[in-house]
């Protein structure tokens, strides 16, 4: 029996952005026309933060300069498209933000990029990775998801964040929070705590099941919005529709 695996990133790409983009990327495995510098920034910063906390968990020392090497390696692809900021400007900004992350008080690190597998049915399971799992002095476990962003998260968006809801399925007793790495004139890193109820976890599972069924039914269609401007499959989309 073949088991279908679906991650939050897949759910998000299909449900919140565009089913047709999901089809191009996940089913046809088409090469993107370009890579967004903003997305590369986010993934590169995430790699640097991961390396920092992994070293901290193993009682090793790593410098900000060493972490920046990881960040800058992400920008080696010639298909990257820049919009406003250049590579050096992005690196300078990331260095400041990374230093702020390194100065944060963090509890005992239990796991970095913790893999999760959540069985939903005999032929279906949800998979993913938790950015950071820590334990405070009072024994409470906290799941932290890192986000680089230009604006502070809306409280409603935090309360309804599907990624945290997915993680909560694996650790229903853990506290949840978004660590917003703010790329502003005054850089900052802010925590936004939230929680989930049993009904919210149930709703998350139902959403995953609905998306799985839509994917299996081959429901591929364009969903237009602000994300179209930065889509890496614009030419293919125009050709199909």
TrEMBL record:
Domain of life: Bacteria
InterPro entries documented for this protein: PDDEXK-like_dom_sf, PDDEXK_AddAB-type
Pfam families: PDDEXK_1 (PF12705)
Residue ranges annotated for the PD-(D/E)XK endonuclease-like domain, each copy included: 6-237
Protein name, entry field: PD-(D/E)XK endonuclease-like domain-containing protein
Origin species: Candidatus Raymondbacteria bacterium RIFOXYD12_FULL_49_13
Lineage: Bacteria, Raymondiibacteriota
